[in-house]
Design a protein that fits this description.
Elements: E1 22-26, H1 31-42, E2 46-51, H2 54-63, H3 70-73, E3 74-78, H4 84-98, E4 103-106, H5 122-150, E5 154-159, H6 172-192, E6 197-204, H7 210-215, H8 218-225, H9 236-247, E7 258-261
Parallel strand pairs: 1-2, 1-4, 2-3, 4-5, 5-6, 6-7
Helix pairs in contact: 1-9, 4-5, 5-6
The structure holds nicotinamide-adenine-dinucleotide (NAD).
Nicotinamide-adenine-dinucleotide binds near residues 27 and 29.
Length: about 270
């Protein structure tokens, strides 16, 4: 079947859906994290941006400078999400700076060039599990504690992947880590639901991003696109829009869910 060129519609008008919220985003200087930060700010939230990379954080600050009142509505913190003391410290800092914690998007993650499990070094495995998975455990633990004691409930969104729902040849460690996020989301959703704390995972397939391009060779990406009914990879705002919805009160009866954001990809 021939594909047709279509014109994408612009993102929906901003509806101030996160007015009054304080949000914390890890990996906030990354491709998806930064777009989500922008969207959250435009929707009225105050945002704490966490990232390991100081230079990327500085670039993120410049990139967001066009948003009104951005200085007073943001807090930039360089921290390592795989460290428990650092995670506890940035959650405490977020709460003491802004006085609340309503939404958390745990976006920090690490991928790698496709490699057979037969050739995957255990040090790479450990690193991938730490950045994608240990960080989620620590983030849910400390953000969950803060939300419980603040007493306003909250929404925690975990950045899984299509690789957290299906086989991803050459990405065993990444896939294991992203599958594990379902375990955290489902179990913690059960434990924390009585405090009004919701947990959901999102599962993007390919996002037009450096991470995707460095993980999959162009030829394979082109072949994979034939399995995407919408015949394009996601743009960062496609992902940020879903995260914003899950953070908003419009999603207040959604917890433990797994949301594919993949253009209807046909998995095989
Ligand atoms: N890009 C895609 O195609 C895609 C598809 C599916 C899922 N995802 C997932 O979405 C998330 C975001 O992806 P992205 O494309 O924005 O990636 P990215 O590489 O652009 O951003 C990740 C950010 O995490 C930060 N980070 C890495 N290790 C850290 C640590 N130890 N402590 C704190 N920060 C750390 C990096 O500095 C970077 O800014 C990831 O979890 C990724 O696995 C991405």
């Amino acid at each position: 079947m021939d594909s047709t060129t279509i014109t994408l519609r612009p993102p929906s008008a901003i509806a101030n859906r996160l007015a009054g919220q304080v949000a914390l985003i890890t990996g906030a200087a990354g491709f998806i994290g930064l777009e989500t930060t922008r969207r959250f700010l435009q929707e009225g939230a105050r945002v704490v941006l966490i990232d390991l990379d100081e230079e990327k954080l500085a670039r993120a600050k410049t990139a967001l400078a066009d948003i009104s009142n951005v200085e007073e509505n943001t807090l930039f913190v360089r921290a390592d999400v795989t460290s428990e003391p650092e995670t506890q410290a940035f959650v405490d800092q977020a709460v003491s700076h802004f006085g609340r914690l309503d939404s958390v998007f745990l976006s920090a993650g690490l991928s790698y060039s496709r490699t057979s499990i037969l050739e995957t070094d255990v040090d790479l495995y450990d690193k991938v599990m730490a950045v994608n998975c240990r960080s989620a455990f620590l983030g849910v633990k400390h953000c969950g504690r803060a939300m419980k004691s603040l007493g306003n409930g909250g929404s925690i969104i975990l950045a899984s992947s299509a690789s957290g729902l299906r086989a991803s040849r050459g990405m065993t460690a990444y896939s294991m880590a992203k599958f594990a996020l379902r375990g955290i989301a489902l179990t913690a959703a059960n434990e924390l639901g009585p405090y009004g704390i919701r947990l959901n995972t999102i599962h993007p397939s390919g996002v037009d991003s450096p991470m995707f391009e460095s993980s999959w060779p162009e030829e394979e990406r082109n072949a994979m696109l034939q399995n995407v009914p919408l015949r394009r990879w996601a743009q960062p705002n496609d992902i940020a829009a879903v995260i914003t919805f899950l953070a908003s009160n419009d999603a207040q009866y959604l917890t433990g869910g797994a949301y594919k954001v993949d253009g209807g990809s046909v998995y095989n």
